[in-house]
Amino acid sequence: MNPLLSKLQPYPFERLRQLFASVTPNPALRHISLGIGEPKHATPPFIMQALSDALGTGLAGYPATAGEPALRQACAAWVERRYGLQLDAATQVLPVNGSREALFALTQTVVDPTQAGATVVSPNPFYQIYEGAALLAGATPHFVASDPARNFAPDWDSVPAEVWARTQLVFVCSPGNPTGAVMPLTEWQKLFALSDQHGFIIASDECYSEIYFRDEPPLGGLEAAAKLGRGFERLIAFTSLSKRSNVPGLRSGFVMGDAAVLKKFLLYRTYHGSAMSPVVQAASIAAWGDEAHVVDNRNLYRTKFAQVTPVLAEVLDVKLPDASFYLWAGVPAGWQGDDAAFAKALYEHEHVTVLPGSYLAREFNGSNPGRGRIRMALVAETAECLEAAERIARFVHAHPHKV
Q1: Which of the four pLDDT bands, split at 50, 70 and 90, describes residue 60?
Q2: What's the mean per-residue pLDDT of the chain?
Q3: Where is the Aminotransferase class I/classII large domain (predicted)?
Q4: Is the pLDDT of residue 58 over 90?
């Protein structure tokens, strides 16, 4: 077996299952889960129809790894509408089977484990694929804590020069999971300068970009590069239909950016066997071509967060995020920062699942930046999320201190 597999840590939801194993939740209450970030809003009927229509002829041949020209063009057209950028659909866009698969695969493409000290830099807390992809590529992760005092922006200045010198890949997540923070242009400028100096590639995970609460849509990595008057050298952005269009089961997204990097990525994917089904491609073309359902979906989240956030803000350290469908909340002071104990007791007393923030981060340089916080995914219907918030408030009032 691949010895690098032994370096992988248990996934957060496996740790949560173990945490709850000895608990019998309140049987008088139905279970409400705010744990998993899986969209629950209805899939738009026109996407389902496009999928159904394609079944008649869409399975008769092997799909091309690069995707059909019509899909790449639909992706490029969306980028132009969303960001005002004109991409070459043939060389700067590549369809992928969801951003998760692509984030992992790009890491295997980019990292050269024969180089001494090969390093992948990741925000902390983070999406667990970043760490797993780095480890299985033979690299060492270096974690950069998100700073609550700066809207949870990663503290890039904390990375020593000798680490940057060994860095081959940097993950950026904006809007962030779990914080919902959007990286501003000044941070992008700093990271681009470091990339120019040290030659590392930037992987910008932007799968939450279409769920936001401000008037201005979140800044994208390629958009930031254009605003700064630079090209897309060593920059790859990832986006997905899962959250935007409520189709996580479709497994469809695309990557965009540096044509030279994407050429190598396509080569890797050709051998990896990552071609997207023609049926999925047909549904994806329909989804990328329509914006009305995205506006409707965003409005559902805005209404939901407007109702739920004030209820939770009365008992937890939490505020409306920039974007995404998560609330990143601090547990009450009386719980002494024990986010796992808080989640366990909440599950026992109120049958509500939240994810301990420490499970989404790593102990690094003596601290775990997720400690003392919980992540809540407001993906269910408003009434269910509001009921969960009211139960959480009731629990905190009854248990202001650690149980």
Answers
A1: confident
A2: 97
A3: 32-392
A4: no
Instruction: Name the pLDDT band for 403 (thresholds 50, 70, 90).
Output: confident
Where in the chain is CATH 3.90.1150.10?
A: 3-42+293-398
For the whole prediction, is pTM greater than 0.70?
Answer: yes
CATH 3.40.640.10 positions along the chain are 60-290
Token pair, residue 42, equals 């209805």
Does CATH place domain 60-290 in 3.40.50.1010? no
